């Protein structure tokens, strides 16, 4: 196969051909893709931080994601006659919060739709180039949103259009980074590796919040421009140094395959011929066993996870904890413990799924366990700050654990499924189908919460528990298949006297 070495990658060819060479390239891929997607999230997070400046009412409402057709005045009638100061037209008007909600909903919608198209493209072009274009484009339009501050732009449609295009560029990120990491790591330890690697989401959210908040005193435009410049610079580094796959550095020889077997499980490129692989089509990807159930499962997992992401600070600040109401800033800081729990949950879920070699069983176990965790947090989280922290952390582990597992290790597994007969050019398409479906749930959850929370938070948590139940049930057939395969392996091992692992490998 013809070599497609990116500029600059020759710096790492000096150790090619040894076990260290493979490990060095893998470490490079993990670091670059980690900071790549962290920068995506940092750029995405700026909007939520700046909302309180664009519309002073927003700081009293938390992070709102609903359309303007909802009468938001029901939630803050005591402030309906307040005299506004500061703000930025048109978001400082009576319906300013709803306008911000429209922008958020438009961003999430185009992000979900764009994911399907980007995945299809990703298996047909150089992932390094696609990722670079997405990052530079995201940086450009993130900065363009902030440029409205200096250009004195007050047109709602300008900001809406910028967010729509930014959402389209943002959709290039996840299919690309998962496909690149999947190209470099075999299945054996993929769950644990990707579980740790998936911490980039929380790192990006936290760093994006801190950077945007620190720059607000200089003018809200800087809160967009600086993260925009940062992601563009990281994109340039990705272009210069990221090897999208082992073939990018000419490592498709037998020695790579052998070392891959010994150190990282079965390599994804094993069994490839000199014939150029044909990219897998959208319909063909849908027919891969497990893609549809996991995609639908992720819809409901993300519905729960993103409802917490956008609404948890608001819920905490409007719920008496230990008989006291926490400030908005305290509630926002406290809510980060849910993300921290999610990082730990993703690592644990990945490790367990590796040890059991049962992704569906692990994901379903976490989603079913999240149901009592959500009930306990709603019921007993208000007793004291101590109990609120513990129950929130546990809920974060169980809610985000399967979400992280499905979007990383499961997507990579299915993108290299045995039904593809060694064809590795399905990773981006499969990842896009799964996460694109999940992103639709990410938009639906916060939207429904905007309506339901106006009447009852207990009803909101009931909705979340039902969503977790449905997510687990959608994997029931895959769970049964995994358990049946395990039982058959154990029976075969008992009959032959061989270790269970030997029978499963065979």
Automatic annotation (TrEMBL):
Pfam families, sorted: MFS_1
Keywords from the UniProt entry: Membrane, Sugar transport, Transmembrane, Transmembrane helix, Transport
A GO BP annotation: phosphate ion homeostasis
SUPFAM superfamilies: MFS general substrate transporter
Mode of membrane association: Multi-pass membrane protein
Main location: membrane
Localisation per UniProt entry: Membrane
Family of this protein: Belongs to the major facilitator superfamily. Organophosphate:Pi antiporter (OPA) (TC 2.A.1.4) family.
Protein name: Major facilitator superfamily (MFS) profile domain-containing protein
């Amino acid at each position: 196969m013809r070599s497609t070495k990116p500029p600059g990658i020759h710096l790492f060819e000096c150790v090619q051909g040894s076990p260290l060479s493979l490990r060095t390239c893998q470490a490079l891929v993990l670091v670059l893709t980690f900071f790549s997607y962290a920068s995506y999230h940092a750029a995405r997070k700026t909007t939520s931080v700046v909302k309180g400046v664009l519309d002073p009412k927003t700081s009293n409402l938390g992070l709102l994601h609903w359309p303007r057709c909802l009468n938001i005045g029901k939630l803050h009638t005591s402030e309906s006659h307040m005299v506004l100061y500061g703000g930025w037209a048109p978001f400082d008007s009576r319906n300013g919060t709803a306008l911000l909600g429209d922008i958020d909903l438009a961003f999430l919608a185009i992000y979900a739709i764009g994911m399907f198209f980007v995945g299809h493209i990703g298996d047909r072009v150089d992932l390094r180039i696609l990722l670079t274009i997405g990052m530079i484009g995201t940086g450009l339009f993130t900065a363009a949103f902030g440029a409205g501050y200096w250009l004195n732009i007050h047109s709602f449609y300008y900001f809406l259009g910028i967010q729509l295009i930014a959402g389209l560029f943002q959709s290039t990120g996840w299919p690309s980074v998962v496909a690149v990491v999947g190209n470099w790591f075999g299945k054996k330890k993929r769950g644990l590796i990707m579980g740790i690697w998936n911490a980039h989401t929380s790192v990006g959210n936290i760093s994006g919040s801190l950077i945007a908040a620190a720059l607000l005193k200089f003018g809200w435009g800087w809160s967009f421009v600086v993260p925009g410049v940062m992601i563009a610079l990281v994109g340039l580094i990705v272009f210069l140094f990221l090897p999208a796959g082992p073939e990018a550095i000419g490592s498709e020889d037998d020695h790579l395959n052998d070392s891959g077997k010994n150190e990282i499980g079965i390599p994804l490129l094993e069994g490839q011929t000199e014939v150029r692989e044909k990219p897998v089509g959208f319909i063909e990807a849908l027919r891969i066993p497990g893609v549809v159930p996991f995609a639908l499962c992720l819809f409901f997992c993300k519905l729960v996870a993103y409802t917490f992401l956008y609404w948890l600070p608001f819920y905490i600040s409007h719920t008496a904890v230990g008989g006291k109401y926490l400030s908005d800033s305290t509630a926002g800081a406290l809510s980060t413990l849910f993300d921290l729990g999610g990082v730990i949950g993703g690592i644990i879920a990945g490790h367990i799924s590796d040890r059991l070699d049962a992704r569906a069983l692990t994901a379903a176990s976490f989603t079913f366990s999240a149901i009592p965790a959500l009930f306990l947090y709603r019921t007993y989280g208000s007793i004291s700050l101590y109990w609120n922290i513990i129950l929130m952390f546990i809920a974060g582990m169980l809610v985000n654990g399967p979400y992280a597992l499905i979007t990383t290790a499961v997507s990579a597994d299915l993108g290299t499924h045995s039904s593809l007969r060694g064809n590795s050019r399905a990773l981006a398409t499969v990842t896009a189908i799964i996460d694109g479906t999940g992103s639709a749930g990410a938009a639906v959850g916060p939207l429904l919460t905007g309506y339901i929370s106006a009447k009852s938070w207990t009803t909101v948590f009931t909705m979340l528990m039902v969503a977790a139940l449905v997510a687990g049930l959608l994997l029931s057939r895959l769970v049964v298949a995994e358990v049946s395969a395990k039982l058959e392996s154990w029976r075969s091992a008992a009959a032959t006297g061989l270790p269970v692992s030997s029978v499963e490998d065979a």
